[in-house]
Amino acid sequence: MGKTVDDFISKNKKWQAGLEELRKLILASGLEETIKWGQPVYTLEDKNVVGIGAFKSYFGLWFFNGALLNDPGNHLHNAQEGKTKALRQLRFQSKEEMDKSLIKDFLEQAITNQKDGKEVDIDTKREPEIPEMLSEAFEENTELHQQFKALTPGRQREYAGYIREAKKQETKERRLKKIIPIILAGKGLNDRY
Length: 193
Hints:
Blueprint lengths: L4 H7 L4 H13 L3 E5 L2 E6 L2 E8 L4 E5 L12 E2 L10 E5 L7 H16 L16 H9 L1 H9 L2 H12 L4 H16 L9
Antiparallel strand pairs: 1-2, 2-3, 3-4, 4-6, 5-6
Helix pairs in contact: 4-5, 6-7
């Protein structure tokens, strides 16, 4: 991943012309440019508004509170239906198919929403639904339970979901065995270790 927006754009040669055009449009809107998660992100008063992404089959924008944008033409995509609550993508497969007036409209809406303090309400503090297998492991190992409780609610939900989403009992057991030492180390499931 690049350390600058120029690095990011130059590494994505297939989409380079389109990415450069998106960058120009966003910078003209007055947002501040930065790099987060190895990709260009544009902020307003340190709040994420929009980012640029490049993927195998498309490039485009992702709006951090895109679910609040007025989109009567259904141009915005939810990358993970049922999981992603706020984020929406505007995808392109060529620079030529980019509709600048549509892009500017979405940018204006996103900026106005951010200025007005509008955000998708995501309940990040809700307690996770603990699978029975994980509850039983907590009963057998109080240190495991204490370390789990010390994790953020988001990390707790990741672990609970990791077990719950497995279809086969043996997969659930294998996953439980894998996560116990990670939890005991005080790390999240997706942390780099």
